[in-house]
Amino acid sequence: MPVSNVFDPYTGAANGGIIPSGGKSSLYKPTFNEVDLTDGSWTLYDPDSLIQSVSFSGGYNTVTWNALAVASLNYNWAAGGEHRAPRWYKDNSIDGNNVTTMDYNVFTSVLQVDNSVDDFNQAVLMGVCVDPTGTDVFIIDVSGGYVTKQTGNDPAWGTQQYSSATTATDINIDYGVCTMMRGGNLMGSGVFINSDSTNNRGYVQGARNSGAAIFGSAIPVNNYVMVGVGVRDSVDTVGAGEKQRFRAQYITYVPDVAGGVP
Amino acid sequence: MPKTGSFLHDSFVVENVASVGNTFDVTKFHAHDLYADTSGKGRIFADRVESVLVRVTSLAGAPAPTKIIIRCCFDETGDYTWLPDTEALISTGLTTTTSGCTAFEYKLPIKNVINNDSTVYLFFKTDNGTCTVDASCITWSE
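The joint structure predicted for all components is written out below.
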C-alpha cells in the first residue's frame, strides 16, 4: 500500500497523491547559470597573453585587455582555421554528470553587452566546446551564442558555429538569446532571437548550421562551457587597457534521446 | 524529569458509509473529533496532523475502484478544506479483492479556526465504481 503524499515533499505543492516530483527542478522557466568569471570556477586560456584583468559587478563581467597591436584572423571567433583569442572554460556538467559530445544536448545562452563600455570593436562568445585549450577550429569545436559590437553602433547578436557566425541587429534590441543542439558527435546548429528588455519582444531572428562533425565515431568526449572574447573583425586591434563589459547566462539540458527511441 | 518529544494520538471512526461513488457527496463523510479522547476535548484543534488511513469494503463496479480520493475540511459542507483532494491506491486484502486500505501522509500543523472546535470532516470518493468506507483513522501529534 503506497503512502500518498498530500503535498509534494520537494516542491510543497498539493499534488493530489500522484508520484512526487523526486526533487527534480521543473522544465518550466529553469534558472540560468550566471557567468561570473571571477568566481573561481573558470579557467582562463590565453595563449597570447591578451587579458590584463577581469572583474565582476552587477551581473556584468568587465574584461580589460593588453594591447593587440597587430590585427589577425586568429582573434576573430567567426573566421579562419585558427583561434588564439582568450577564452574561459569549465566542465559542462549537470548534477555532476559531464555532458559529452555523444549526448544530445541543448544549450541556451543569453548575452548582453554594456554599450557604454565601447573601447574597441569587440566580440563575446558564450558556448560549448570540446577542447578549450586548442587553437585549431577542428580541435576546439566551439559553437554558441555570439555578439559583436562595432564602436558607436548597435551590437549584433546571433550564433557562432565552428568558424563562422550569423548575427542580426536592430536599434531596439537589448539582448540575444541563442539555443543550439549538439550531440551524436555532430556540432549541430544554432538559432537565435534578439529582443528588447522592456517587454521581451523579439525583433530579429536567425539560424546557422555548423556543418561540422566532431568525430566520425560514437566515442564520447567531455564538453566544456566556454566564454570567448575577441575582436569583431579580423582587421580590428585593441589598445592596452581597453575594456569590454558583458553579461552572459547559460543553461544546458540533456534529454534521454536514446531512452526515447523504441 | 519531564518527558520531551512528540506524542501521537488518533481519532478512529468505525462507521459504514455505503455507496461511495466517484463524486464527492456532502452526506458521505466521517466526522473526526480529534481531541475526543484527550484532555483538550472541546478546545480548538491546533496540532500537527500526521496521516490518514481509510478502510474500504464492498468494492464493486466495472471497473471497481482502484483508488480512494479524500478531502478533509473544517466544516461538514466541505467548503473549508485543509487537506486538498488527494488520491491513494487501494491495497486490497490478501484473502479478498473486495476490501482494502489506503494511506495518506499530511505532516502539517493545522488550527480549526473555522468552527473553533476539534472536529474535522473526512470526505471520500472513488476513481471508479462504488465502495463502502467502513473505517478511517486520523493520526496527529503534539
